[in-house]
Input
Amino acid sequence: MTIDENTIEHLAKLSRVKIGERQKEKLASDLEGIIGHFKELTELNTDEVSPVTGGTDLMNIFKEDEEDEELLSKGRSAFPEEERGLLKVPAVFEKNDEE
Amino acid sequence: MKNSDNKFSVSAIKNGLRSGSFSAVEIAEEYFERIDKKDKDIHAYLRLNKKGALEAAAWVDSRLKAGEALPDLAGVPIALKDVILSEGLPCTASSKILENYLASYDATVVKKLKEQGAVILGKTNTDEFAMGSSTETSAFGPTKNPHDLERVAGGSSGGSAAAVAAGMTVLALGSDTGGSIRQPAGFCGAVGFKPTYGAVSRFGLIAMSSSLDQIGPFASSVEDAETLFDAIKGEDSRDATSFDLPDRMIWQKEDLKRITVGLPKEYLEGGLSKEVGAAMEKAIRNFEDLGVIFKEISLPHTRYALSCYYIIMPAEASTNLSRYDGIRYGRPEGAKNLLEIYEKTKGEGFGEEVKRRILLGTFVLSSGYYDAYYAKAQRVRRLIRQDFEKAFDKDTNGVDAVLAPVSPSTAFKIGEKTQSPMEMYLSDVFTIPANLAGIPALAVPVKDHEGDLPVGFQLMAKWGDDKNLFALGKSYEEA
Output
């Protein structure tokens, strides 16, 4: 598996992280080494093995869907911007200037 | 620094407070003095909670004066790894991205500690977002090993381990995703415990890898670690993976003569430093003197655990860390659009190791690679879990517990492994399997070890057998 600077750019784009030019080469070689190590897993035949999909075997754990006013207001107070009781976030859709 | 100040046990504080030998405020002041004196060199703490601690201690004193019966942890100093939220205190995860974040609520474990009257001294250093094995990835500088300041304290909960080992707190909490409690406990000479997955609520823990993370205690003795574990365990409706441990018979002294402990050959052959090997033999002899019977066992998929872990953990971490996007925890200056907000926030806020794991996690989850890496690792995880299930299966003459070293070597030098991520990852090779299997594991320092640096062993048991590990650990300590 070859990981080059293009792969790093692609992964950085997917994960929305800006990677500095100088970091790309080092990260590419680090990732290539780490992913190369994973090759050993192909030694194992896992065709008949069921995956472990989480840390717990507990199922159907429910709780009442109740508002916790205290926790809500604490959470809100930690948010950067609020307007009329609503959390304010930057616009997702922008006006297209060409229109 | 071998002659660290006299360490108070939980029971010594409990008795002292009730007999009037000292007050909770005096104890808190004593510990802040020690921190003032020692932490310049060690750097276990990121932030102290002097005001809050002294208020909590004064409250304990007033209750005691009024003749009230208080829980065991009342007035006992405790430190919190800086990934655990305590309302009003900063919680940075040792990352620049959360440098100015103040926790807006208490983690469930913190709520429980406060209800007990425990005195929270401050927040301790960790690798950034608990990603590392040495606290060297902390954005605020590494924690030094109290036994040798040129060496690492281990990680990621290195601050908590060092604070306990240097007598700068009585107890501490850490989190263990792949060994982050046990490895620093081993390096610093403290007791550290990773509970069964789900035994302790993680509500209010900054998540790294949700199918692996567990909160657990640090202490100077197994007994104190158990007291702290008892105070924080239990089901919590705010963490759907949490549950009450099943009621089981707990091993008594006479049971120890019937107990069989497995020695997994995969952990003991090759790869161990001479010093660690000799220390393991010593620990085994001590257990044999108690009547414990040892038996060689095989956990054949052990060697695949590291690869399995370094696929699953980054996959989950890259997902968990997407929430630090510049929307929820402070906005960056000068970003022109949404994409720039995301990229700038993460690009400037995360350190190198965090970025490495985000990219790695994104890679193993990305189209075309998912099946070959992530789905494969989930299946290998089953094989690792089955290794333990078979080892503990009583119907096939299985063992009651497993003993293994915590780490292949003693604490390494600061800077020794920072250039090679793979070499750093290998220092977790013995601690990772317990996380993948979800089983409890207790790290205890080897007694009367002659080297300059501590060596730890770990006891693992089947799912839900947490209390039995404490029984076994206490018998070793008391012998």
In short: Chain B touches chain A through 67 residues (CB under 8 Å). Residues 63 and 423 of chain B are 52 Å apart (CA to CA). DSSP finds 16 helices and 13 strands in chain B. Chain B has a mean pLDDT of 95.
